[in-house]
Amino acid sequence: MKEKILKLLTEMVAINSRTNTENEREIEDYLYGVLCGLPYFKAHGTHFGQIALPGDSCGRRIVYGLVKGKSNKTVVLMNHHDVVGTEVYGTLEPYAFNMSELAKKLRTELLDEDAHKDLLSGEWLFGRGSCDMKGGIAVQLALLEDYSQNPEAGNLLFVSVPDEESFSAGMRGALWLFEEFEKDWDLEYKLLINCEPNEKIGHKQVVSVGSVGKLLPVVLVQGKAVQIGSYYEGINPILLLSEIVCATEGDENLVEICGNEATVPPVWNFMRDLKDSYDFSLPQRAVGYCNILTFYKTPADIMQLFLEKCQLVVDRMQLGRKDKEEIKIMPYSELFILAQKKKGFATFFAKLQHDIEDVVHVQGSDYPSVTIQMLQEVLNFANVTEPVIIIGFAPPYYPATNSVKLAGACFEKIMQTISNSLPVVFKQYFLGVSDCSYCGVDSPIAGDYYITNTPIWGSLYSFDIGALNRVKIPFVLLGPWGKSLHQRTERVNIVSLTEVLPPVLQNVIKDVWAKDII
Known about the structure:
Layout: H1 2-13, H2 24-36, H3 39-43, E1 48-52, E2 61-67, E3 73-80, H4 99-106, H5 113-121, E4 124-126, H6 134-148, E5 155-161, H7 169-184, E6 188-194, E7 200-201, E8 204-208, E9 210-211, E10 213-215, E11 217-222, H8 237-248, E12 257-258, E13 261-262, E14 267-273, E15 285-294, H9 299-318, E16 328-331, H10 332-340, H11 345-361, H12 367-382, E17 388-393, E18 401-402, H13 403-407, H14 411-421, E19 424-427, H15 447-452, H16 465-470, E20 475-477, E21 482-483, E22 491-493, H17 494-514
Parallel strand pairs: 3-5, 3-6, 6-20, 8-19, 16-17
Antiparallel strand pairs: 1-2, 2-5, 4-22, 7-8, 9-18, 10-15, 11-15, 11-17, 12-13, 14-15, 21-22
Helix pairs in contact: 1-6, 6-17, 8-9, 10-12, 11-12, 14-17
């Protein structure tokens, strides 16, 4: 199995499957080819295949393969086959997808002490995707092949999705697929294993049984544009937005706690005025968006938080003004209602949606950027000219979820099986954001609130919230020991990958099938 895993990994790393591009199709063809080559799937042609993502501009696909056993108890081996870009490699970028050549070239580079030590040890494989997460895919494929030669106890379902590194289009698109598989093949989902790489604390590997939530609030501030010489008659939206940023950025009071684990505080990813060019006047508008991680808070909670923070900022700024001009604060859903009342709205909005889709598919713009564009266009159409603060959401949205809450106390038996096989430290939440957010939520999502406050929700970005509330697959993030994800020294430990992880996964899978532990 060791040689098989290393061969699969070498071949997969050699494929440039950069996220959110048509390049992902090449590795989808590779994975499909691997499944085609297995005797089991030659004999069971309906048990594997590729499913195109509906409306995906890159033409990407979900690759799957099911090995049927003697019961309906099903373990899912899930992964993503895209990788982040290679710009961080600098002059070594041409070697990022060639593990052996990259290792040679890195020997002449100035590396940090830990990376240098690992490189010289010969115990690590360097290369884009070696760790995140083609190493995990290689192990899953090897286990699938091994089990397919003599399937017995239960079902093993391999699912590989695109686009985890950008907007999780693959996993969002797989929600309905899990429901279809469950119905068509009479599957009883017991556990999903996502072989994302794990770090270590001391000699113990960190294994996560939950995945943090993520929201991206967008704040658009419309001030009062005047000539700078008449400054006191105007309202500078840059000042307002700056105060909103200062009131939230890094605020420890907004951190969520779960046991001894905590989210990071709010982080603003983007902030700027919306003037096209310089002139001697205040800008009319400024905009920014903020990264919020959650354990418990809902979109409604986050919206209320920002409405309150914005009101505090406005109240404080108004104290020093003689002319206390009203500054309205509203969620996008209220602005949308105002715009709907205007004549010709339906035609306007249909064209806007079409134009925005073109900006994304043809020009390659991202979701936060087009969200800002839609906010501006709807604000213009609504003919709101007075100072106002509009708050909405831009994709992506990752709901927080936790397997202990999903499955109850019985999930602790899975954790015990893992700890019996491997020295581990369990984390209730993986803080790096993962596709496991779409395995099922531990408390129902009221999707209407997020939908009505997300301008681009629809054909550009969506997921089946009903299916997410119905599909409840307990999961664990358990993969090989890796380091420096997304960096030029990304690497995976060979022993962990080829000797430690495979038997651990086999033990977990066999326990799930053999014992009624979940």
